Each structure stands twice: as structure tokens, then as C-alpha cells.
Amino acid sequence: MNVGIDKIGFFTPNYYVDMVDLANARNENPNKYLIGIGQTEQAVIPNTQDTVTMAANAALQVIDDSNRDKISLIILGTETGIDNSKSGAIYLQNLLGLSRHARAFEIKQACYGATAGIQMAKEFVNLHPNQQALVVGADVARYGVRTAGEVTQGGGAVAMTIAADSTILKLSKNSSVYSDDIMDFWRPLNRTEALVDGHYSNDIYQQFFVKTIHDYLQTNDMNLTDLSALVFHLPYTKMGLKGLREILPELSETDQKHFLSEFEASRVYNKRVGNLYTGSLYLSLLSLLDNSDDLHAGDQIGIFSYGSGAQGEFYTGTLQPGFKNSQRKKQINEILNQRTRLTVPEYETMFAQWPKLDAGDYHLDDLKDHSQFTFTGVNESKRQYQTKA
């Protein structure tokens, strides 16, 4: 049975900061950000958007009357939870008007959460081929103004439906996983900004990639050249390039050029958005689907997922005849091109307006946020959401 990704959509809010502007404001050579980090723009998240609203806005692109009643599993992968108890997936279920008979829950393991959701959804659909699952990776990446991690911030959501007879990507039955108790990145309960050991995290990422891809290829009696492209978790796009370079010596010069070309296609969108944490890998997959000129139905794609702390997983997918979608590509480019470019002071002000964990009750004015779903504050310690017509 062809179980896999049937639809995929993306959302990020209507603001960004240009990396040249940020570099100049921080007295850095812009190439440190443009080349050294591999980013050109970074999404800036207003306080009227959170993981729930971004997930719901992304899901609008994959949920319609043709599949709404088939969704019986809702999984939100996030490390930017909005409640220590209640799952964001429950809010998502309500905002989207999905069945009350659906299972709905949240998964947390750093940037790996959406992948865990996809693997669970795949098994669910194998058992229930007439039903579908909604899996969303949604996050806000915050490290702080004028910190070492500032250039790797961002946010947004990627929503996917998992179904039998999928039109985009058939998922492999097997995968290779590796996990260890690693303190490369963490976010204590009293913080909205993450803590990270950057160089250590880069090293662990590359180690986990090499371990899992080689294990997968060996276990499944495959060669690297059986794959037409590799997709990486991209908290910043240079990180994926570092991973790719670990295995390039195993390829011919011609194959190296091919994999590098496909990697460039896979980071077109990520370069303009920044870090989505759980959604980063799947935005990269979406970018590859939309921007590669050399892929065809039947090609196998290698997929590397990584979540600090740490969990790595490598699996593959086979492209289906419907993987190209010009309307989807047009919609995503419109989302990115129609955003408002903030000055660095404006970005700093918006960043500082993010609600504190102990903010109590408050109301947010969402008149400038034209997204269909917005967050409007907290009343009696209960989060308030609005659906616009």
C-alpha cells in the first residue's frame, strides 16, 4: 500500500528582517550571515501568532471538503508548547473544525517532533487505509537579540496529510534511528529563549547523520547513488551543507555535483524563513519538490531528521506522479514575497513584545494581522483564539 505524504502546506507570518540589514546593525560582514550561515532573510513572529495559529494557517492549505471528514488523527510536533498540560493539537482540531472522534495530541523532542508524528501517522494509516492523519510541525525559534544564535531564529509551520495512495511521497517502511542523552540544545521551563552549545550541536548533527544514513543503506542493501537527492533538517541552511559534505567523498565528481545541485533546490525557502525547528526539515522537502528541475516520479529521496538532545532518524520516500504542484509553489512564493520588511529596530521591538511566561491575563490587538487564525491574548489564564472570515 502506498502510504505517504498526500498534501503539504506552509505558513509563516507577514514579517521578516533582511540578513544584510541585521549584519550591518551588528557590525558584521554580511557574508558571515549570507554564506557562513546560509541565510538571506529571517521570519519575525508577531505576538498575535503562536504554534497553534501558525499550524492552523498552514493546515488550511491541506484540509478541505475532500478530506476533512477523513482526518481521524491530529499530531502537532512542536518544542514551543503553549501549555504544560493541554495539547496544542486540541486547539488545532477545534479551529479547523475537525472530527471530535479524532485522536489529537502533541509530540516534543526538539526538532524531531514532526518526524515522530509522521512515523506514527504512517502506521496508523497502514492499519486504517480509509482514514487520514494531519501532522504539523510548528515552532518559534528564539535565542535573543544580540546573541550568538540571533541569526538562526525564525518561525512558521508545515502541515502534511498522511494517506493511503498518497500523491506526493510514498514513505519507506523502514528507517534507521540513533539517540543519546546529549546537552547540545535545551530550553528550561522558565525561558522562551533556547540555550545552545552551537559547535557541539553541529558536531552531533553530523555524527548522527553519518551513523543513520550508513546504517540505513547497509540494512536495506542500497548505495548512495540509489538516491536522487538528500533532504536535511535545516535550522540554518549551512548546517545541512556541512552534513552533506560528510558523505560527498563517497561519490564520484559527477554525483557530487548532482547532490549539491539538489541541495541548493532544497534550501530556497529555508534561506528566506530561518529556523522552524520541527518544521525545518519538511520546509526543505517542500523546497526540493517545488524548486528542483531534475526530479521525476519514482525517484527516491533520502530524508535526515535531527532533534537536539538528541534523536536522529534517516528514512526515504519515493516521489509520486503528483509531487509537482505549480499552484502550491505560487502560493508559497506569494507568502514570502508579500511580507513586510522590518528595520532592525522594528524587528527588535516586535521580538521584545513576545508574551512572557508569567504575563498573566492580557489582550492583543490583531487588527494588523490578516491571517485567518490569530492569537488574541489570555483571559482567566485561558488562551484566546480568533477565526477571521
From TrEMBL:
CDD domains: init_cond_enzymes (cd00827)
Binding site for (3S)-3-hydroxy-3-methylglutaryl-CoA: 143, 242, 275
InterPro entries per the UniProt record, alphabetical: HMG_CoA_synt_C_dom (IPR013746), HMG_CoA_synth_N (IPR013528), HMG_CoA_synthase_prok (IPR011554), Thiolase-like (IPR016039)
All residue ranges annotated as the Hydroxymethylglutaryl-coenzyme A synthase C-terminal domain in the record: 254-346
Keyword line: Transferase
A biological process from GO: acetyl-CoA metabolic process
One MF term in the entry's GO annotations: hydroxymethylglutaryl-CoA synthase activity
Keyword Amino-acid biosynthesis: no
Catalytic residues, chain numbering: 79 (proton donor/acceptor), 111 (acyl-thioester intermediate), 233 (proton donor/acceptor)
All residue ranges annotated as the Hydroxymethylglutaryl-coenzyme A synthase N-terminal domain in the record: 2-165
One Pfam family in the UniProt entry: HMG_CoA_synt_C
NCBIfam families documented for this protein: HMG-CoA-S_prok
The name this protein goes by in its record: Hydroxymethylglutaryl-CoA synthase
